[in-house]
Amino acid sequence: MIPLAVAAVADIVGGDLVSDSDTRITGVSIDSRRVMAGDLFVPLVGEHSDGHDWVEAAVAAGATGFLCDEAHADLAARLPGGIVVDDPLDALTGLAAWVRDEVDPIVVAVTGSNGKTTTKDLTAAAIGAARVTVANPGSFNNEIGLPLTLCLLTAETEVLVCEIGARGIGHIAEVMPMLRPDIAIVTTIAGAHIGEFGSLEAIVRAKGELVEGLSEEGVAVLNADVPEVAGLTERSPGRVVTFGRAETADLHPDEVTVDEAGHAVLTIGEVTVRLPRPGLHNVGNALAALAAAEIVGVPRDVAAGGLADAGVSRWRMEVTTSADGVVVVNDAYNANPQSTVAAIDTLASIRTDGARWAVLGFMAELGDQTGPGHRTVGAHLAEAGIDGVVVVEARAGAIADGAREAGFAGRILEAADVGEATDTIAGLVAAGDVVLVKGSRSVGLEVLAAALLEDGGHQ
């Protein structure tokens, strides 16, 4: 963050600095347990907790300033660095907008039903190979995470890459005045979270807010392989660049192959790059990253080198081999039918002399598509030709039903919970086997993946 005097922060957010302080703010935190010396602590109010209860702990941990609302002005009166504001979250948003204006980086924003975090990571790696780049940690992609990300910018930052999530119409539009992206990437539009949006049309409308919010100088980077995304061209006030497997896309590969580990290898002109994560579905994510990098001015070969070295966000196609020789593909961060089908295809593409197992959990937020969505995944198991599946929890039982109905030739096992599933799969696998772990965040299948690797492993 740009170092700022506490008084300067008060001026920026329009707050009242009750107790004078000449100390400087060098970071922002919303968690008193993770406060670093020099942080501004922002107490957020939720359904079950009030961050104001932790202001004293934050100051004791080293926070040199904090925000508080009028109802807690007594904190500012007796603790150093207290700034009284109408609403701490609104004040954080105002501070973030000021930092964005002060640093004035090129802002690349990513949204979509699937692939947001991966595309964000790949784009940051591709651009970061040549420019000083900041990306939001993990999935800091909402009205809280995005301002926290903006506060990470420094005077040296040239490019910001961030993903934007949406739980409804208007969510993306709400953060656009603060973020003001120069480049907008839309990866895919599908039925993820359809239970919250109500229809695919509503999802299209919500994701399109990112494109509509561009200025005339902005560039929309759209997936030509997905009609719902390509259709957003008409909603862009600025230039449009398309990417995809189709030759009609502005950026498309001349050749795509898959190696023994399931990683796609792309050739575009004279540049060849092996993607750092397995799965053909990552081809589109990588093309989006390369397109954004070229718009920013990064040479394609340099961007490709950055792509090849890109890191992996936690629980997203993390491939690890245990000390016992079992390969675990941990994609447990979240799931919907489209991403789960892609993950199953990735599992099937990994060459091994052992067995291929999928441990699949419930996919949330599908609304009236819950049953059909789970059956679709089960049916795809039969097409993929893997060796077995462990379905976790009764609410995911339609996966097993769909597999049986489609004539899946492998073993179908059902477990009541994550603990039973862990015991089941641990008793089945041996050296050389590959296990995909995939489910919605609420299922907690990362615990199972960790148990399979608890004896150690290597990337």
Automatic annotation (TrEMBL):
Its EC number is 6.3.2.10. Pathway: Cell wall biogenesis; peptidoglycan biosynthesis. One of its GO terms (cellular component) is cytoplasm. Coiled coil: none annotated. It holds the Pfam family Mur_ligase_C. The keyword Oxidoreductase does not apply. PANTHER family: UDP-N-ACETYLMURAMOYL-TRIPEPTIDE--D-ALANYL-D-ALANINE LIGASE (PTHR43024). Belongs to the MurCDEF family. MurF subfamily. Involved in cell wall formation. Catalyzes the final step in the synthesis of UDP-N-acetylmuramoyl-pentapeptide, the precursor of murein. NCBIfam families: murF (TIGR01143). This is UDP-N-acetylmuramoyl-tripeptide--D-alanyl-D-alanine ligase. The lineage of its organism: Bacteria, Bacillati, Actinomycetota, Nitriliruptoria, Euzebyales.
